[in-house]
Design goal:
57% helix; mainly alpha; two-stranded antiparallel sheet; 2 domains
Length: 291
Protein backbone atom coordinates (compact mmCIF):
# COMPACT_ATOMS: atom_id res chain seq x y z
CA UNK A 1 0.00 0.00 0.00
CA UNK A 2 1.36 3.42 -0.97
CA UNK A 3 2.43 5.73 1.82
CA UNK A 4 0.83 8.99 0.71
CA UNK A 5 3.05 11.22 2.85
CA UNK A 6 6.28 9.57 1.71
CA UNK A 7 5.18 9.87 -1.91
CA UNK A 8 5.62 13.66 -1.66
CA UNK A 9 9.27 13.27 -0.69
CA UNK A 10 9.81 10.61 -3.35
CA UNK A 11 8.45 12.77 -6.16
CA UNK A 12 10.47 15.73 -4.86
CA UNK A 13 13.64 13.65 -5.05
CA UNK A 14 12.73 12.59 -8.58
CA UNK A 15 12.52 16.22 -9.70
CA UNK A 16 15.79 17.18 -8.03
CA UNK A 17 17.88 14.18 -9.10
CA UNK A 18 18.66 15.90 -12.40
CA UNK A 19 17.33 19.42 -11.87
CA UNK A 20 17.52 22.01 -14.66
CA UNK A 21 16.38 25.24 -13.03
CA UNK A 22 16.84 24.97 -9.25
CA UNK A 23 19.85 23.90 -7.21
CA UNK A 24 20.03 22.99 -3.51
CA UNK A 25 23.04 24.55 -1.74
CA UNK A 26 23.88 22.27 1.18
CA UNK A 27 26.64 24.52 2.55
CA UNK A 28 24.22 27.41 2.89
CA UNK A 29 21.61 25.12 4.42
CA UNK A 30 24.09 24.25 7.15
CA UNK A 31 24.90 27.94 7.77
CA UNK A 32 21.23 28.89 7.90
CA UNK A 33 20.48 26.02 10.30
CA UNK A 34 22.99 27.52 12.75
CA UNK A 35 21.39 30.94 12.35
CA UNK A 36 17.98 29.43 13.04
CA UNK A 37 19.13 27.71 16.21
CA UNK A 38 20.92 30.83 17.40
CA UNK A 39 17.79 32.94 16.86
CA UNK A 40 15.79 30.89 19.37
CA UNK A 41 12.58 31.94 17.60
CA UNK A 42 10.58 29.31 15.79
CA UNK A 43 6.89 29.43 16.68
CA UNK A 44 3.73 31.37 15.91
CA UNK A 45 2.56 33.39 18.90
CA UNK A 46 -0.90 31.76 18.88
CA UNK A 47 0.48 28.23 18.99
CA UNK A 48 -0.97 25.63 21.37
CA UNK A 49 -3.93 27.53 22.78
CA UNK A 50 -5.33 25.73 25.82
CA UNK A 51 -8.91 24.45 25.48
CA UNK A 52 -10.38 22.23 28.15
CA UNK A 53 -12.49 19.12 27.52
CA UNK A 54 -15.73 21.01 28.10
CA UNK A 55 -14.87 23.17 25.06
CA UNK A 56 -15.15 20.25 22.64
CA UNK A 57 -18.05 21.92 20.82
CA UNK A 58 -15.90 25.00 20.24
CA UNK A 59 -12.96 22.83 19.14
CA UNK A 60 -15.21 21.02 16.66
CA UNK A 61 -16.39 24.33 15.21
CA UNK A 62 -12.81 25.62 14.89
CA UNK A 63 -11.75 22.42 13.11
CA UNK A 64 -14.66 22.77 10.68
CA UNK A 65 -13.67 26.38 10.02
CA UNK A 66 -10.03 25.44 9.42
CA UNK A 67 -11.05 22.64 7.05
CA UNK A 68 -13.26 25.06 5.11
CA UNK A 69 -10.81 27.96 5.06
CA UNK A 70 -7.81 25.88 4.15
CA UNK A 71 -9.71 24.34 1.23
CA UNK A 72 -9.43 27.72 -0.55
CA UNK A 73 -6.18 29.02 0.93
CA UNK A 74 -4.52 29.79 -2.40
CA UNK A 75 -3.68 32.53 -4.95
CA UNK A 76 -4.83 35.95 -3.71
CA UNK A 77 -3.35 38.13 -6.45
CA UNK A 78 -4.07 39.17 -10.04
CA UNK A 79 -1.15 39.30 -12.50
CA UNK A 80 1.30 40.68 -9.92
CA UNK A 81 1.79 39.64 -6.31
CA UNK A 82 0.64 43.01 -4.91
CA UNK A 83 -2.55 43.43 -6.99
CA UNK A 84 -5.19 42.38 -4.44
CA UNK A 85 -8.59 44.15 -4.61
CA UNK A 86 -9.87 45.25 -1.17
CA UNK A 87 -6.73 43.86 0.41
CA UNK A 88 -7.99 40.33 -0.19
CA UNK A 89 -5.55 37.86 1.33
CA UNK A 90 -5.54 34.90 3.72
CA UNK A 91 -6.32 37.13 6.71
CA UNK A 92 -9.32 38.63 4.92
CA UNK A 93 -10.40 35.18 3.75
CA UNK A 94 -10.63 33.90 7.33
CA UNK A 95 -12.27 37.12 8.54
CA UNK A 96 -15.06 36.77 5.97
CA UNK A 97 -15.58 33.14 6.97
CA UNK A 98 -16.03 34.19 10.60
CA UNK A 99 -18.61 36.75 9.46
CA UNK A 100 -20.59 34.02 7.71
CA UNK A 101 -20.53 31.80 10.80
CA UNK A 102 -21.68 34.70 13.01
CA UNK A 103 -24.76 35.21 10.83
CA UNK A 104 -25.87 31.69 11.78
CA UNK A 105 -25.13 31.76 15.50
CA UNK A 106 -26.15 28.21 16.39
CA UNK A 107 -24.00 26.61 13.70
CA UNK A 108 -21.16 24.44 15.06
CA UNK A 109 -20.48 22.56 11.83
CA UNK A 110 -20.58 23.25 8.12
CA UNK A 111 -23.92 23.75 6.41
CA UNK A 112 -25.09 24.97 3.04
CA UNK A 113 -26.33 28.36 4.29
CA UNK A 114 -22.94 29.25 5.77
CA UNK A 115 -21.04 28.15 2.67
CA UNK A 116 -23.31 30.01 0.22
CA UNK A 117 -23.08 33.18 2.30
CA UNK A 118 -19.31 32.79 2.41
CA UNK A 119 -19.10 32.43 -1.36
CA UNK A 120 -21.10 35.64 -1.79
CA UNK A 121 -18.70 37.53 0.50
CA UNK A 122 -15.69 36.24 -1.43
CA UNK A 123 -17.33 37.45 -4.65
CA UNK A 124 -18.08 40.85 -3.13
CA UNK A 125 -14.45 41.26 -2.10
CA UNK A 126 -13.19 40.23 -5.57
CA UNK A 127 -11.18 37.17 -4.63
CA UNK A 128 -9.49 35.58 -7.67
CA UNK A 129 -10.34 32.07 -8.92
CA UNK A 130 -13.86 32.38 -7.51
CA UNK A 131 -15.25 29.53 -9.61
CA UNK A 132 -12.58 27.18 -8.28
CA UNK A 133 -13.06 28.44 -4.73
CA UNK A 134 -16.82 27.86 -4.92
CA UNK A 135 -16.26 24.32 -6.15
CA UNK A 136 -13.78 23.52 -3.38
CA UNK A 137 -15.99 24.98 -0.66
CA UNK A 138 -19.04 22.99 -1.75
CA UNK A 139 -16.93 19.87 -2.14
CA UNK A 140 -15.57 20.28 1.40
CA UNK A 141 -19.10 20.78 2.71
CA UNK A 142 -20.25 17.50 1.20
CA UNK A 143 -17.22 15.49 2.38
CA UNK A 144 -16.46 17.02 5.79
CA UNK A 145 -18.22 14.51 8.06
CA UNK A 146 -15.84 11.59 7.46
CA UNK A 147 -12.64 13.58 7.90
CA UNK A 148 -13.90 15.35 11.04
CA UNK A 149 -14.82 11.99 12.56
CA UNK A 150 -11.32 10.65 11.84
CA UNK A 151 -9.66 13.77 13.26
CA UNK A 152 -11.46 13.44 16.58
CA UNK A 153 -10.74 9.72 16.68
CA UNK A 154 -6.98 10.19 16.27
CA UNK A 155 -5.44 13.37 17.72
CA UNK A 156 -2.04 11.82 18.49
CA UNK A 157 -0.81 10.47 15.16
CA UNK A 158 -1.26 12.35 11.90
CA UNK A 159 -0.94 9.41 9.47
CA UNK A 160 -4.52 8.12 9.47
CA UNK A 161 -6.40 11.45 9.35
CA UNK A 162 -4.00 12.73 6.67
CA UNK A 163 -4.74 9.74 4.44
CA UNK A 164 -8.50 10.08 5.02
CA UNK A 165 -8.35 13.75 4.05
CA UNK A 166 -6.42 13.07 0.85
CA UNK A 167 -8.65 10.14 -0.13
CA UNK A 168 -11.90 11.94 0.73
CA UNK A 169 -11.62 15.50 -0.59
CA UNK A 170 -10.25 15.77 -4.17
CA UNK A 171 -9.53 19.50 -3.81
CA UNK A 172 -6.98 18.67 -1.15
CA UNK A 173 -5.43 15.74 -2.99
CA UNK A 174 -5.04 17.18 -6.51
CA UNK A 175 -1.72 18.87 -5.68
CA UNK A 176 1.21 16.51 -6.30
CA UNK A 177 3.03 18.10 -3.32
CA UNK A 178 -0.08 18.09 -1.06
CA UNK A 179 0.57 21.61 0.25
CA UNK A 180 -2.86 22.40 1.69
CA UNK A 181 -3.27 18.91 3.14
CA UNK A 182 -0.03 19.36 5.08
CA UNK A 183 -0.94 22.90 6.09
CA UNK A 184 -4.33 21.81 7.46
CA UNK A 185 -2.75 19.44 9.98
CA UNK A 186 0.05 21.89 10.75
CA UNK A 187 -2.61 24.47 11.63
CA UNK A 188 -4.32 21.99 13.96
CA UNK A 189 -0.95 21.31 15.57
CA UNK A 190 -0.33 25.03 16.06
CA UNK A 191 -3.77 25.70 17.48
CA UNK A 192 -4.32 22.63 19.66
CA UNK A 193 -0.92 20.92 20.02
CA UNK A 194 -2.18 17.74 18.32
CA UNK A 195 0.12 15.26 16.48
CA UNK A 196 3.21 16.58 18.25
CA UNK A 197 4.99 13.20 18.08
CA UNK A 198 4.42 12.76 14.34
CA UNK A 199 3.93 16.22 12.83
CA UNK A 200 7.45 16.29 11.35
CA UNK A 201 6.66 13.41 8.99
CA UNK A 202 4.71 15.96 6.92
CA UNK A 203 6.39 17.85 4.09
CA UNK A 204 6.61 21.60 4.51
CA UNK A 205 3.78 23.43 2.72
CA UNK A 206 5.54 24.38 -0.53
CA UNK A 207 3.97 27.65 -1.61
CA UNK A 208 5.11 31.13 -2.65
CA UNK A 209 6.72 32.56 0.47
CA UNK A 210 8.90 29.74 1.79
CA UNK A 211 10.82 29.19 -1.47
CA UNK A 212 11.21 32.97 -1.80
CA UNK A 213 12.91 33.03 1.59
CA UNK A 214 14.99 29.90 0.97
CA UNK A 215 16.31 31.51 -2.22
CA UNK A 216 16.93 34.79 -0.36
CA UNK A 217 19.05 32.94 2.23
CA UNK A 218 20.91 31.00 -0.47
CA UNK A 219 19.57 27.57 0.49
CA UNK A 220 18.18 27.13 -3.00
CA UNK A 221 19.47 28.80 -6.16
CA UNK A 222 17.57 29.62 -9.35
CA UNK A 223 18.99 29.52 -12.84
CA UNK A 224 19.63 32.93 -14.38
CA UNK A 225 16.64 32.64 -16.70
CA UNK A 226 14.24 31.54 -13.96
CA UNK A 227 15.45 34.29 -11.62
CA UNK A 228 14.92 36.90 -14.36
CA UNK A 229 11.36 35.71 -15.03
CA UNK A 230 10.49 35.87 -11.33
CA UNK A 231 11.96 39.36 -10.90
CA UNK A 232 9.98 40.58 -13.93
CA UNK A 233 6.64 39.10 -12.77
CA UNK A 234 6.47 36.64 -15.66
CA UNK A 235 4.10 33.77 -14.92
CA UNK A 236 5.64 30.37 -14.22
CA UNK A 237 3.15 27.79 -15.58
CA UNK A 238 1.56 25.40 -13.12
CA UNK A 239 3.10 21.91 -13.27
CA UNK A 240 5.98 23.19 -15.43
CA UNK A 241 9.41 21.80 -14.66
CA UNK A 242 10.44 25.19 -13.24
CA UNK A 243 7.53 25.28 -10.80
CA UNK A 244 7.90 21.65 -9.76
CA UNK A 245 11.62 22.07 -9.10
CA UNK A 246 10.99 25.19 -6.98
CA UNK A 247 8.51 23.29 -4.82
CA UNK A 248 10.50 20.04 -4.71
CA UNK A 249 13.65 21.90 -3.63
CA UNK A 250 11.63 23.69 -0.94
CA UNK A 251 10.43 20.38 0.51
CA UNK A 252 13.82 18.66 0.49
CA UNK A 253 15.68 21.71 1.81
CA UNK A 254 13.20 22.10 4.66
CA UNK A 255 13.55 18.43 5.56
CA UNK A 256 17.33 18.88 5.75
CA UNK A 257 16.92 21.98 7.94
CA UNK A 258 14.60 20.03 10.24
CA UNK A 259 17.24 17.32 10.69
CA UNK A 260 20.00 19.86 11.35
CA UNK A 261 18.01 21.98 13.83
CA UNK A 262 15.83 19.33 15.47
CA UNK A 263 12.82 21.57 14.77
CA UNK A 264 9.42 20.34 13.62
CA UNK A 265 7.93 20.99 10.20
CA UNK A 266 5.67 23.74 11.64
CA UNK A 267 8.70 25.36 13.29
CA UNK A 268 10.63 25.45 10.01
CA UNK A 269 7.62 26.79 8.13
CA UNK A 270 6.98 29.48 10.77
CA UNK A 271 10.58 30.67 10.87
CA UNK A 272 10.69 31.44 7.16
CA UNK A 273 7.11 32.65 6.77
CA UNK A 274 7.41 35.13 9.63
CA UNK A 275 10.54 36.59 7.96
CA UNK A 276 8.97 36.96 4.52
CA UNK A 277 8.99 40.78 4.70
CA UNK A 278 12.78 40.85 5.17
CA UNK A 279 12.99 40.20 1.42
CA UNK A 280 11.45 42.70 -1.02
CA UNK A 281 11.93 40.40 -4.02
CA UNK A 282 8.73 39.06 -5.58
CA UNK A 283 7.88 35.40 -5.21
CA UNK A 284 7.37 33.22 -8.26
CA UNK A 285 3.96 33.77 -9.87
CA UNK A 286 1.95 30.64 -10.66
CA UNK A 287 -1.82 30.69 -11.06
CA UNK A 288 -2.86 27.64 -9.10
CA UNK A 289 -5.31 26.29 -6.54
CA UNK A 290 -2.51 24.29 -4.88
CA UNK A 291 -1.12 27.25 -2.90
Amino acid sequence: MMNIINSVFEVSESFMNDSKYVNINHDNIFRVSKRMKDSGVKKFEFEHNSLEDEDEQLIRKLVFMELLGNSINYCYWYGRYDIRPNGSDSVMMYKLMEESFKKFRNVVSLNEDVVKDYISLLAEHRFPLLEERSKHLLETLSCSTDIIREIFRSKRHVYEPFEVLVKTIPGYSADIFLKRASLFFIQLNRRFGWYQDSISVLPIPADYQVPKMLEYYGCIEYSEGLKERIMNYILIPKNSLEECEIRAATILTSRELSKLTGWTTPDIDSWFWLRRKECSNPFHLTITTDY
